[in-house]
């Protein structure tokens, strides 16, 4: 059996696809059960966060496993397989281990170095253990991933490279300023009471908010979270819980709102936010005018027939699609003299080009035409010489309401981006901002830790793979000793207990010494890359019953599962 992971994340898929593919808790459980029911898989675990969905499985066939896991992800996410496939990534065996260990260390996170992923890996393992879809391989894998992540955070400065997604989002709301200085004394609203919302609430409290309100569909959970915040030793924040239907009212009082629920639809519509703005300011919310022209954008087409002094017959090109009197359509077919006149007219308003003497020799005209042809051949068009007109920026008031949407799918309508007086940061904008985030020097050290741990995990798994064979061999040897002692009793019935015991012990010592060196050495060899074949060789050399080996393996897995259920 071999480890396989099929998934998608913010690195492989746009946020719009991740948003549609998000799995609820019930959907994750159903996915695990269906994966285990599929023929290629014997173990399964799902790691689902706000920016990744990954299905881990122990499979006996690679291609069949990839096809089955991809199909199951598509079925349970609701995104068609053809649409989902281009965004999926596949890791197998050691590469799959390397991927999960990198994820656990925060190297694959949207915010490099964040530690929240460890809690999400722990939750994924607990769910798989509860549903009994994780056996020896995935239990060992996920528990080792947790240890690797903790090692990376304790032995390196990876924490300096990143922070939690909540802190990063709050810093984006404050336009890069320190969250503590910007948040201090403000009123905050947190929508949701799950792990991410709890982290957001705790982060806001540490940053110094003056008041925090928790809204949740289950009011008891909101009250418990509010009580935890109130009872904190290092804060005197005023925290209270409200029902979800109070959110519109609370939004008129809040300076900051963070939303992270498991809702499948929008929690805050643009209309709700606009109404909250009106309640805060006393005036209707204005909508930003997103003009197509802007810095680096394209200029609006120039109106035809209004340019005074243009030497062209404008009426002849009135119907030309995409025509601009400054572009290549305007100068097509001009002779050199008209071309120069047109260029002088284009540059007339800039004061940067001198008018040339129209009395020129034919070779000058030919030179100009040759230069123009060369430019067309190089850039595919006649270069425009008119400078872009300065764009008038639409004044935008300072935000009076800051919104942070950490849900997947989104809780807050993306149309809120266009409301004046609101600043919205969501998963999509966080993904764009994190692409430019600097990497810490400690990241290289973490990568070395991951590589070392992957090698150690592989060696341990290969060594464990041969253990049932070794146990079966020793069991067979013990049966041979027992049978021979029984035969000795029949042939020498006069032996007393002391003599019989001494003979039995001697035979056992001989067998143990004969088996000790081969079994120790075969475990060492099996731990090396390519060592899986030693188990087959051992079974063949000693003619071991495959069913006996399988029975030992099943017994070990059952014992391990019982232990893990106790841990969960």
Largest sheet: 6 strands, parallel
Shape: elongated
Q: Looking across the biggest beta sheet, what order are the strands in?
A: 7-6-5-8-9-10
As a percent range, the share of helical residues equals 40-55%
Count of DSSP helices?
A: 22
Percentage of β-strand residues: 5-15%
Q: Pairing-aware structural class of the strands and helices?
A: alpha/beta
Number of strands: 10
Task: Point out poorly predicted stretches.
Answer: 291-332, 349-360, 383-389, 564-568
- Rg value: 35 Å
Mean pLDDT: 78
Oligomeric state, counting identical vs distinct chains: single chain
**Distance between the first and last residues' Cα:** 25 Å
């Amino acid at each position: 059996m071999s480890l396989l992971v099929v998934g998608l994340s913010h690195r492989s898929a746009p946020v719009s696809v991740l948003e549609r593919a998000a799995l609820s808790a019930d959907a994750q459980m159903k996915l695990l059960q269906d994966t285990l029911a599929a023929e290629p898989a014997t173990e399964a675990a799902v790691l689902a966060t706000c920016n990744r969905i990954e299905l881990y499985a122990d499979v006996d066939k690679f291609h069949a496993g990839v096809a089955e896991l991809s199909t199951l992800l598509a079925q349970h996410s609701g995104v068609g397989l053809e649409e989902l496939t281009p965004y999926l990534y596949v890791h197998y065996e050691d590469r799959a281990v390397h991927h999960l260990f990198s994820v656990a260390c925060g190297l694959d996170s949207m915010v490099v170095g964040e530690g929240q992923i460890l809690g999400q890996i722990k939750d994924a393992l607990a769910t798989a253990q509860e549903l009994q879809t994780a056996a020896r391989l995935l239990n060992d894998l996920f528990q080792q991933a947790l240890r690797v992540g903790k090692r990376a955070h304790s032995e390196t400065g990876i924490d300096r490279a990143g922070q939690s997604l909540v802190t990063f989002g709050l810093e984006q709301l404050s336009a890069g300023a320190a969250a503590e200085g910007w948040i201090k004394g403000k009123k905050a609203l947190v929508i949701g009471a799950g792990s991410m919302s709890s982290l957001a609430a705790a982060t806001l409290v540490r940053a110094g908010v003056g008041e925090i309100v928790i809204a949740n569909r289950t009011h008891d959970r909101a009250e418990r979270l509010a009580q935890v915040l109130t009872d904190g030793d290092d804060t005197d924040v005023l925290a209270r819980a409200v029902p979800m239907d109070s959110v519109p009212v609370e939004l008129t009082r809040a300076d900051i709102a963070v939303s992270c629920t498991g809702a499948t639809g929008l929690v805050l519509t643009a209309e709700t936010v606009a109404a909250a703005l009106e309640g805060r300011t006393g005036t209707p919310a204005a909508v930003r005018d997103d003009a197509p022209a802007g810095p680096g954008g394209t200029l609006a087409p120039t109106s035809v027939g209004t340019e005074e002094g243009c030497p062209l017959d404008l009426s002849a090109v009135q119907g030309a699609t995409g025509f601009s009197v400054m572009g290549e359509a305007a100068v097509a077919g001009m002779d050199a003299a008209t071309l120069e006149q047109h260029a002088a007219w284009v540059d007339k308003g800039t004061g940067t080009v001198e008018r040339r003497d129209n009395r020129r020799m034919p070779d000058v005209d030919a030179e100009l035409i040759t230069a123009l042809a060369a430019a067309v051949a190089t850039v595919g068009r006649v270069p425009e010489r008119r400078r872009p007109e300065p764009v008038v920026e639409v004044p935008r008031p300072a935000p009076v309401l800051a919104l942070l949407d950490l849900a997947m799918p989104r809780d807050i309508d993306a149309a809120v981006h266009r409301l004046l007086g609101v600043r919205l940061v969501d998963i999509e904008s966080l993904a764009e901002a994190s692409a430019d985030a600097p990497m810490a020097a400690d990241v290289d050290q973490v990568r070395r830790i991951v590589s070392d741990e992957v090698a150690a995990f592989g060696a341990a798994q290969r060594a464990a793979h041969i253990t049932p064979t070794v146990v079966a061999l020793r069991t067979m040897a013990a049966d041979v000793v027992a049978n021979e002692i029984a035969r000795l009793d029949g042939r020498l019935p006069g032996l007393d207990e002391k003599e019989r015991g001494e003979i039995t012990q001697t035979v056992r010592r001989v067998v143990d010494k004969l088996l000790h060196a081969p079994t120790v050495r075969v475990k060492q060899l099996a731990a090396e890359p390519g060592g899986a074949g030693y188990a087959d060789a051992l079974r063949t050399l000693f003619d071991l019953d495959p069913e006996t080996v399988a029975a030992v393996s099943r017994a070990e897995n059952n014992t391990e599962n019982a232990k893990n259920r106790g841990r969960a």
